[in-house]
Design brief:
This protein has about 180 residues and is mainly α. The protein is built from eleven helices and no strands. The longest helix has 26 residues. It is elongated.
């Protein structure tokens, strides 16, 4: 691995796997066993480095376009969202938290997050038809995102303390449980 790639991998690890959002270029350089000048040489600033690695993650985990999922049922869309987010969050458990807490929701958020706001009309129909216990589509989405995104940080916490192993069947069962919480 060349120097530039090593810096990017260490930064991804520190920021999005370990959740060290305020890691400095000095800390990133030390973790990569190099001098901070290497980061400056390749990336100029930490902000530029972060923009580059988030761009790489967007390419690694492209969110589906609305046109690709618009003809699916709401249940299928929710399943796709949960599966998409699960795969992304298994590798980068703190990425969503970083995007939200660092006010990076504009460009990156639109590319990294599933097109959830497009679901509001369908959720509203479910509310009118009594197919959900929710009475507000935005609350539905906020709770869904909180449950799905926050899970990986919580799971990581428990795994570290009790050596829990989460199987693929666990994730499938979890998807079913979440769908059943949101839809009747």
């Amino acid at each position: 691995m060349n120097t530039e790639e090593k810096i990017k991998e260490i930064a991804k690890y520190l920021l999005f796997v370990k959740g060290r959002f305020y890691a400095t270029t000095q800390q990133i350089a030390q973790s990569a066993d190099m001098d901070r000048t290497a980061i400056h040489y390749y990336f100029r600033t930490k902000a530029n480095l972060v923009n580059i690695i988030i761009g790489e993650i967007i390419n690694e985990f492209p969110a589906p376009a609305w046109n690709d999922i618009k003809d699916l049922s709401l249940k299928e869309k929710l399943e796709r969202y949960i599966d998409f987010n699960t795969e992304k969050s298994k590798k980068y458990p703190y990425l969503d938290v970083y995007i939200i807490t660092q006010n990076e929701c504009s460009e990156f958020g639109q590319k990294l997050f599933f097109p959830l706001t497009e679901l509001i009309p369908e959720i509203s129909v479910c509310i009118r038809e009594g197919k959900t216990s929710y009475d507000n589509p935005v609350l539905f989405l906020v709770d869904l995102v909180s449950m799905v995104s926050g899970f990986h940080i919580s799971a990581d916490f428990f795994r570290k303390r009790s050596e829990i192993v989460l199987s693929s069947s666990f994730y499938h069962h979890r998807t079913e449980k979440i769908i059943n919480l949101f839809l009747k």
